[in-house]
Structure prediction request, 346 residues.
Amino acid sequence: MSLLRALVGAVRSARHAPRLASGFVPDDDVLLDAPDERLAPALVAAALADPEPAAKLLATTRDGGEWEDRDRYVTRLATFAHSRGDWLTHWLSVAPRDPDALLVTTQLAVRRAWESPARAERLRELGPLIRAVAEEAPQDPVPWRLALDHARGAHAGPAVFESLWEQAVRRSPHHYGCHVAALKYLSAQWYGSHRAAFDFAGQAADDAAPDSLVRALPVRAAYDRLRAEPAEDRAVSLARVDRAVDRALTLSARFPANDPWPAEVRNLLAYVLVERGRWEEARAEFGRIGPYATSFPWRGARGAGTEDPLRGFLTARDRVRFELARRTPLWGTGVGRAGRGGPGGH
Prediction:
């Protein structure tokens, strides 16, 4: 019987998979970590060793209090400088006290310290630099997001974490990047537990505006819970994971399809939906993602067989098509048992 089921599943997949791909952009049109229309010109100029567009962009976000955009742009510019840093060196040479240049430099230094075998020691050495950057821009929460990341890697205790968190929320109560940094500190992988992470994420989501990305914070806790080793803390039930997914689905539906702003949240949600075997909802979420794949969470995703995040994204999308197709009646046109059925579903 198992062989017969396998053969029927293969026939169903061959028959229905092409139709089920109709809502997906073609593989060749998928973009990984695509910059938005404001960041793209700054990256092009940086590739030509010209820092001026990046300087103007970050100054605009600082003057306008655009903290979410500022955090994203600082991170992306530092990532670019990791492999091509001549533009940043030039920027610092002409404006050594520019707070935006110093912030990108600090982000880059923290990243390199995290990648070092002597991570904790390297990070501790960066403490004065992070404090100096925070003092240069007293209203900016982004240095405090850096400080929270720094505290986690430097093995700072709970009292230090709580003082940094207080400073972060004083500047921006619902800053997504700071909340993600705090959630990582409170995760079972670091200094907390799955329960503590879910409790923190749930309270933050309750307090956030309906269209705030913080509303999706519980699905990040769900991601950590699903990736935990079997021997780790399993006190958090999978029902709580699914409630986090439901909240994230509500948030995703508030944004237009093919919108780059919620792309990382949508990619994370799609990952968790696949892990939970919620195939029809995963298909719909991949449709909303459109061409905007993100490195997180697909780098090293289970089942992808590669560290390539784009390949991980495309592999997961193909799996959704396959699972839906093999659950669709051979001569039917509906999705049959596809919704939440199958291994890992409810």
Notes: The CA atoms of residues 301 and 312 lie 6 Å apart. Confidence is low (pLDDT under 50) at residues 1-17, 334-338, 341-346. Residues 2-20 form the longest helix (19 residues).
